[in-house]
């Protein structure tokens, strides 16, 4: 079994690190490049950057942040937000990122997933999914709907169908962001994560809701996630990455011990 990953998630708005709750009420909390370096030194397995308003504002991607980060950290990192074309993907990868994450743009043009996988390999393409729990219906049989534009716009797409479709088109990973639990620190959305993890044969990253060390154990073991994103509980100094990893190791979860 591969080691489970702990991945700090850095939301960026206008070049600054920001954090909100359920995709709303964001406040700026620092410099994203400095925070990436801090997490790298703490022992993070990867870093994820999301430019959270690039898609809704139809802005370009944050190449300067990508370049500066590549000079500061030596672990894989992915970048999402504002990536709409194959050339956007190329620019991000050439600037130093190992992966690109497509979300809103993939809903509008699913072929971007296939194009990226064909050009750079599936391992470079992450499909980000912003998901909200909704009533079960004929169009949303799984009870979870895909949203785009930073959680602002409903799509009418069933989340389970979209996960399978993303895998079919060539995505190498899925990052499942629960809008309902985002920033709440009440735990990950277990039902959603388990449902998608068991439906696809590619890694699934759980996102949204971590508040306690055991929330990580639960989503990795009970919901079959391959990795978990963190934000609030480490951004504000409640826990360190080492403390989270020690908790997981002590309960038999296979992780990369960066302190040995």
Short summary of the structure?
This protein is an alpha/beta fold. The chain contains 10 helices and 12 strands.
Can you put this structure into words, describing what you see?
By secondary structure, the protein is of the alpha/beta class. It has one domain (5-250): Alpha-Beta Barrel (TIM Barrel). Helices cover 34% and strands 27% of the residues. The chain contains 10 helices and 12 strands. It has an 8-stranded parallel beta barrel, surrounded by 7 helices. Helix 2 links the parallel strand 4 (47-51) and strand 5 (77-80). Helix 8 packs across helix 10 (241-250). The longest helix has 11 residues, at 32-42. The protein is globular.
Secondary structure topology:
Blueprint: E1 5-13, E2 16-21, E3 24-30, H1 32-42, E4 47-51, H2 63-72, E5 77-80, H3 86-94, E6 99-102, H4 104-108, H5 111-120, E7 125-133, E8 144-148, E9 153-158, H6 159-169, E10 173-178, H7 190-197, E11 204-207, H8 213-222, E12 227-230, H9 232-235, H10 241-250
Instruction: Please outline the major beta sheet.
Output: 8 strands, parallel, barrel
Instruction: Note the beta-strand portion.
Output: 25-35%
Q: Total strand count, please? A: 12
Work out the count of structural domains.
1
- Count of discrete alpha- or pi-helical segments spanning 4 or more residues: 10
The residue fraction in helices comes out at 25-40%
CATH architecture assignment: Alpha-Beta Barrel
What is Rg?
Answer: 17 Å
- Low-pLDDT parts are 20-27, 55-59
Estimate the global geometry from the Cα principal axes: globular
Describe the strand arrangement of the main beta sheet, using strand numbers. 1-4-5-6-7-10-11-12
């Amino acid at each position: 079994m591969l080691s489970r990953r702990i991945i700090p998630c850095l939301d960026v708005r206008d070049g600054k690190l920001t954090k909100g709750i359920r995709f709303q009420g964001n406040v700026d909390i620092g410099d994203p490049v400095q925070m990436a370096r801090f997490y790298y030194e703490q022992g993070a397995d990867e870093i994820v950057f999301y430019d959270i308003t690039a898609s809704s504002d139809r802005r370009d991607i944050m190449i300067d942040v990508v370049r500066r980060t590549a000079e500061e950290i030596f672990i894989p990192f992915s970048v999402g937000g504002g990536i709409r074309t194959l050339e956007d993907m190329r620019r991000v990868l050439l600037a130093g990122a190992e992966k690109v994450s497509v979300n809103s743009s993939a809903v509008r043009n699913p072929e971007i997933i296939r194009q990226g996988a064909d050009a750079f390999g599936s391992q470079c393409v992450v499909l980000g999914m912003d998901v909200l729990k909704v009533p079960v219906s004929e169009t949303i049989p799984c009870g979870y709907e895909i949203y785009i534009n930073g959680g602002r716009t409903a799509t009418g797409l069933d989340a389970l169908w979209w996960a399978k479709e993303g895998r079919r088109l060539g995505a190498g990973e899925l990052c499942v962001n629960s809008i309902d639990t985002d920033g709440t620190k009440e735990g990950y959305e277990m039902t959603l994560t388990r449902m998608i993890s068991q439906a696809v044969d590619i890694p699934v990253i759980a996102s949204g809701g971590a508040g306690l060390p055991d929330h990580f154990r639960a989503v990795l073991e009970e919901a079959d996630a391959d990795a978990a994103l963190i934000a609030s509980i480490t951004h504000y100094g409640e826990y360190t990455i080492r403390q989270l990893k020690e908790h997981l190791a002590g309960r038999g979860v296979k992780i990369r011990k960066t302190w040995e």
